[in-house]
Amino acid sequence: MSAWATMLDRLVRERGPALFGYAYVLAGDRDHAEDLLQDALVRTFRSGRALGSLDSAHAYVKRAITTAFVDSGRRAKARPLAAGVDVRDRPDLARVPDPSGAVDDALDLRAALLTLAPRERACVVLRYLEDMTVAGVASTLGLAEGTVKRYLSDGVARLREAAPGVDFTEIETAPVHPQGGAR
Predict the structure, then answer these.
(1) Contact 15/56 with Cβ under 8 angstroms?
(2) Within this chain, do residues 161 and 106 fall inside the same structural domain, yes or no?
(3) Number of domains in the chain
(4) What whole-number distance in Å separates Cα of residue 67 and Cα of residue 60?
(5) Which one-letter DSSP state was computed for residue 98?
(6) Against a cut of 0.70, is the pTM above it?
């Protein structure tokens, strides 16, 4: 078995569920998540090159999932709708209404995430669900930090409206480095 095939096999066995979970949180739909993951794996391993480690392969596939998700959102917006197509039948275009108060916070959050634009959703998922820093999100998505902050601000504002029961407060901390002479 070649090095790339061995890495692919190991990645799918050991990290497949985590990668699928990441794709599912972005897509909000099992079928779309499976397609995103499959597309990302094909894009990553089609050249036959082996990636150095399992962690680097995982990060590369995760980035490919994010890119495929954002690209699919762009393509869907650019495609005209056929006459008679109800937007509610197209989860990639429809705005999900606010679920009733009887639904728990996890379902509220999932529904609220589906209302966000693809880049906003990717930024929010990476920042708050993957616990990445703003700089890490910017690096992962290839965006400026200010752009990521704007997407996060807009996304969280929409999430607060759509899911008022979910707490989105964030505690920002900054490292304090005392001066050598001051005590």
Answers:
(1) no
(2) yes
(3) 2
(4) 11
(5) P
(6) no
Spatial contact of 60 and 17, defined as CB atoms under 8 Å apart: no
Single out the residue of 144, 142, 172 nearest to residue 156, CA to CA: 172
Q: Which residues contact 144 (CB under 8 A, 6 or more apart)?
A: 138
Instruction: Check if the beta carbon of residue 50 is closer than 8 Å to that of residue 3.
Output: yes
Q: Are 4 and 73 contained in the same domain?
A: yes
Tokens matching residue 24: 């599912």
160 token code pair: 């607060």
* Mean pLDDT by groups of 10 residues along the chain of 183 residues: 83 91 88 91 81 85 89 62 55 46 59 87 88 91 93 90 71 51 47
Question: In whole angstroms, what is the distance from residue 156 CA to residue 109 CA?
Answer: 11
**CA nearest to 71, candidates 19, 106, 36:** 36
Same domain, 65 and 133: no
Residue with tokens 């990441």: 22
- What angle is formed at CA 66 by the lines to CA 159 and CA 115, rounded to 5 degrees? 25
Does 15 fall in a domain?
yes
Instruction: Return all residues near 139 (Cβ < 8 A) that are at least 6 apart.
Output: none
DSSP 182: -
